[in-house]
Amino acid sequence: MSTVGLQLRELREKAGFSLRKAAVAIDIDVAILSKMERGERKFSKELVIKLAELYKTNSDKLVIDYLSEKVLYELEEEEFGLEALKVAEKQLEYKRTNNK
Amino acid sequence: MSTVGLQLRELREKAGFSLRKAAVAIDIDVAILSKMERGERKFSKELVIKLAELYKTNSDKLVIDYLSEKVLYELEEEEFGLEALKVAEKQLEYKRTNNK
DNA sequence: ATTACCTTTGACAATATTAGTCAACACATA
DNA sequence: TATGTGTTGACTAATATTGTCAAAGGTAAT
Question: What is the DSSP string of A40-57?
Answer without folding.
Answer: SS---HHHHHHHHHHTT-
